[in-house]
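ok so for the tutorial part 2 we go from a plain amino acid sequence to predicted structure tokens. step 1 is just haveing the sequence, like this:
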Amino acid sequence: MKDHRPSWRIAPIPAVVRETWPTVARWRWVSPLRLWGRSPGEIHLVVVTPLRDRASGQTLRLSELTDPDDAYRIYAWLWKDFVSKETDSTAKARR
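step 2 — the prediction. this is what the tokens look like for a chain of 95 residues:
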């Protein structure tokens, strides 16, 4: 039987994510650049670069996510912060 999920849904979890959050046993892809991890009493929201060689994330207690939109806001903030740091480091490297 053919798997009809998008290829990013079944992609392996990047090593940088497994190394940064070693206690998280269960990960799932939310989008091609976003992961959701679960560990007892906590969730881990992570964004990765398109090459999946760098990651940034936030660990929260389950009780902290009271609104379904909270996760989307956190992902947006993580991505914005991540991209701005990447842009800053690239600009500094060019100097």
